[in-house]
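Renewal narrative, Specific Aim 1. Our central claim is that a sequence can be written position by position from structural information alone. The example that follows is taken directly from our test logs and has not been curated for this report. It begins with the structure tokens describing the chain, in the order in which they were read.
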């Protein structure tokens, strides 16, 4: 069985004394109706901190997923995605988990199609 690292699915703790960037949080909040928002800046500019502060302030369901090199394996990536969504929507993604756990060889687009189908059927986005 796959062992999940739960810390990958939690926003990082915010340091005491952190200077909050309310204008950036509000800018993110004003874009909640968009399908995706990208935060782009150089290393050390506080992207993760702003995103973590924003996600913690939301009054709606959200997921956090910290990517690392192990997520280059699509089975690992989709297992984490399912696990993250299950924290908000119990029972989500059983077919995706079954396929990724079985060792079956699916093309990346087939795996993505299965995941997106389950997402569209089981989660209101």
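The sequence written for that structure reads:
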């Amino acid at each position: 069985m796959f062992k999940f690292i739960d810390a990958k699915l939690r926003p990082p703790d915010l340091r005491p004394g952190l200077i909050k960037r309310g204008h950036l949080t509000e800018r993110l909040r004003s874009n909640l109706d968009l399908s995706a928002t990208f935060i782009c800046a150089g290393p050390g500019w506080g992207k993760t901190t702003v995103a973590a502060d924003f996600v913690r302030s939301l009054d709606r369901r959200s997921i956090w997923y910290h990517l690392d090199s192990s997520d280059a394996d699509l089975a690992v990536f989709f297992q984490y995605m399912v696990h993250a969504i299950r924290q908000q929507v119990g029972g989500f993604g059983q077919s995706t988990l079954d396929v990724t756990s079985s060792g079956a060889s699916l093309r990346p687009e087939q795996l993505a199609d299965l995941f997106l189908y389950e997402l569209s059927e089981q989660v209101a986005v």
